[in-house]
C-alpha cells in the first residue's frame, strides 16, 4: 500500500468536507524559535513526519523526526512549552493512533498520553491544552474537549460552524469558519468577528477550493493564508484588507504566524507528478520586503 503523503488530506478534499482540505500540521512561534511540521527528508516516499526548527541567524533544521512511516505532527505552545500530537497510520487496521508529548527547545520530549486510537482526527483543526490531562481541539463543525481516558464533549458552542481553533492568549481564541473568523474568550464570548473572507471572484483556486487555510491574530490585525487566491492577506485594525504577498501556481499558501512586527508566510509547491510538496517559507518584513527562511526547488 502506498504510504500517506503530506498532502493526502488535500487529495481527500474531493470526497470529504472542506475541513479536511489542508495539509496536516501547523506553524508556531515559541519565544525566539519557530517550529513547523513537514517531512524528513523532504522527498521521503514513506512520509516520516518531522518538526523543523528555526531561529534568526541560523538555517532550519530537524528538531524531532518520527520513527513511524505515514506519520504527522501537530503543534501548540504556551510560551516556550511545546505540546506535540504525534499521529501514525496503522496499515493493518486502517486506523490512526495518536499520542501527546510535551517538550521545550533543546529538551527530550516527555510522553503525556500514550498511544490511543484517534477517531476524531484530533489536532487537524488546531488544539491547545487546558492542562496536561485535558486537550481542546477543533473538529468540524465544533470545538471539543477531551479528558485523558475519556470521550470528547463540546467545549463551547457559539452557534457557528467551526473548522479550526487557534490559541492566542490565556483568554483569547481565534476560530476559523468557512469564510468567517471570530476572536472569542475562552468561554466562547465573541470579542471580534470578520466576515466574507473568500470573495466569489477567485479563479483557478488550488483543487478548486476557495478557502482560508489558516489565520493568526495580533493587536487587532488578522493575518490570512488565502489558499483559494494563492495569497497572504492582512486585515488591519480599521478593517481594511490588503494583499501583502501574491503567489502563482504551483504555490499554495497554508500557514501563517505573527512574529512580533514580522509575519511568517508558509506555502508549498504542489505538482501532481508523484513528487512530494516542496516548502516555500518566507518572512514578511516591516518595509514590505520578504526574507527567505526555507525554500526547496
Report on this model:
Helix content is 2%, strand content 51%. The protein has one helix at residues 8-12; strands spanning 27-30, 33-39, 49-54, 61-65, 71-78, 81-90, 95-103, 110-117, 127-131, 134-139, 142-147, 153-156, 164-169, 172-176, 181-184, 190-194, 212-218, 221-226, 231-235, 241-246, 251-259, 262-269, 278-284, 290-295. It starts with 7 loop residues before the first helix and ends with a strand. The protein is mostly beta strands.
Keyword list:
297 residues; mainly beta; Neuraminidase; four-stranded antiparallel β-sheet; 1 helix; globular; disordered N terminus
How much helix, percentage-wise, in residues? under 10%
Shape type: globular
**Uncertain regions spanning at least 5 consecutive residues:** 1-22
Indicate the CATH architecture.
6 Propeller
According to CATH, the homologous superfamily is Tricorn protease N-terminal domain
Query: Could you describe the largest sheet, including whether it forms a barrel?
Result: 4 strands, antiparallel
Structural class: mainly beta
- Give the tally of β-strands: 24
Short description:
This protein has 297 residues and is mostly beta strands. The chain has a single domain (8-295), classed as 6 Propeller (Neuraminidase), CATH 2.120.10. It is built from one helix and 24 strands.
Topology:
Layout: H1 8-12, E1 27-30, E2 33-39, E3 49-54, E4 61-65, E5 71-78, E6 81-90, E7 95-103, E8 110-117, E9 127-131, E10 134-139, E11 142-147, E12 153-156, E13 164-169, E14 172-176, E15 181-184, E16 190-194, E17 212-218, E18 221-226, E19 231-235, E20 241-246, E21 251-259, E22 262-269, E23 278-284, E24 290-295
Antiparallel strand pairs: 1-2, 2-3, 3-4, 5-6, 6-7, 7-8, 9-10, 10-11, 11-12, 13-14, 14-15, 15-16, 17-18, 18-19, 19-20, 21-22, 22-23, 23-24
Amino acid at each position: 500500500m502506498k504510504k500517506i503523503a503530506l498532502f493526502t488530506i488535500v487529495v481527500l478534499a474531493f470526497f470529504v468536507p472542506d475541513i479536511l482540505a489542508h495539509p496536516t500540521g501547523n506553524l508556531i512561534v515559541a519565544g525566539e524559535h519557530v517550529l513547523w511540521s513537514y517531512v524528513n527528508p523532504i522527498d521521503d516516499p514513506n512520509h516520516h513526519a518531522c518538526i523543523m526548527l528555526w531561529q534568526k541567524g541560523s538555517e532550519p533544521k530537524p528538531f524531532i523526526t518520527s520513527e513511524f512511516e505515514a506519520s504527522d505532527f501537530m503543534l501548540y505552545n504556551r510560551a516556550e512549552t511545546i505540546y506535540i500530537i504525534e499521529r501514525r497510520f496503522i496499515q493493518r487496521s486502517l486506523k490512526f493512533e495518536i499520542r501527546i508529548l510535551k517538550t521545550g527547545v533543546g529538551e527530550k520530549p516527555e510522553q503525556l498520553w500514550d498511544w490511543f486510537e484517534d477517531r476524531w482526527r484530533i489536532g487537524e483543526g488546531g488544539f491547545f491544552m487546558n492542562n496536561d490531562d485535558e486537550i481542546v481541539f477543533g473538529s468540524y463543525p465544533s470545538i471539543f474537549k477531551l479528558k485523558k481516558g475519556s470521550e470528547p464533549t463540546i467545549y463551547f458552542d457559539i452557534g457557528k460552524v467551526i473548522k479550526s481553533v487557534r490559541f492566542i492568549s490565556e483568554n483569547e481564541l481565534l476560530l476559523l469558519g468557512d469564510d468567517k473568523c471570530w476572536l472569542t474568550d475562552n468561554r466562547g464570548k465573541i470579542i471580534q468577528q470578520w466576515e466574507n473572507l473568500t470573495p466569489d471572484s477567485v479563479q483557478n483556486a488550488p483543487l478548486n477550493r476557495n478557502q482560508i487555510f489558516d489565520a493568526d491574530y495580533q493587536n487587532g490585525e488578522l493575518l490570512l493564508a488565502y489558499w483559494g487566491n494563492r495569497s497572504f492577506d492582512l486585515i488591519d485594525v480599521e478593517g481594511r484588507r490588503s494583499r501583502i504577498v501574491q503567489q502563482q501556481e504551483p504555490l499554495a499558501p497554508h500557514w501563517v504566524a505573527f512574529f512580533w512586527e514580522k509575519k511568517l508566510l508558509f506555502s508549498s509547491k504542489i505538482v501532481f507528478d508523484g513528487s512530494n510538496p516542496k516548502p516555500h517559507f518566507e518572512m514578511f518584513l516591516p518595509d514590505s520586503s520578504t526574507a527567505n527562511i526555507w525554500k526547496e526547488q
